[in-house]
Specification:
Length: 123
């Protein structure tokens, strides 16, 4: 969007959300395999997310660290635009919020990095 980062009010209509969803810089749940790791940096925190098994992730950082729960196994609901519309197939997308199964919703995602399982074992 011209002038900087889009605001949630710019995505209040379904057509605006659909249009934006098609242009997301994102990683989808189906993009990752068992053992892969995703580092998500939000406006307020950093999360380390390991693919534990299909539909379940081991998460550390951010809210989980502050609650003394890291690492914890949790499902990820998907990403939201800051409201109730959720894209369930997403793990992370710049500008959106990550929502965990326990209803924890992160601040806006600034960036993410995928680390493949096989890359971690390379010296």
């Amino acid at each position: 969007m011209p002038g900087g980062e889009p605001t949630p009010s710019q995505y209040r209509t379904l057509s605006a959300i659909v249009d934006h969803a098609e242009r997301l810089e994102a990683v989808y749940k189906g993009d990752l395999e068992l053992g892969d790791r995703l580092i998500v940096t939000t406006r307020n925190s950093t999360y380390s997310i390991h693919v534990f098994q299909e539909g379940l992730y081991t998460v550390s950082g951010g809210w989980f660290d502050r609650q003394g729960l890291s690492p914890t196994k949790v499902a990820i609901n998907g990403c939201t635009w800051g409201g109730h519309a959720i894209k369930e197939d997403l793990l992370a997308a710049c500008g959106l919020h990550l929502e965990f199964e326990n209803n924890v919703v992160t601040s806006r995602i600034l960036r993410f990095q995928v680390i493949r399982c096989c890359e971690e074992s390379i010296n």
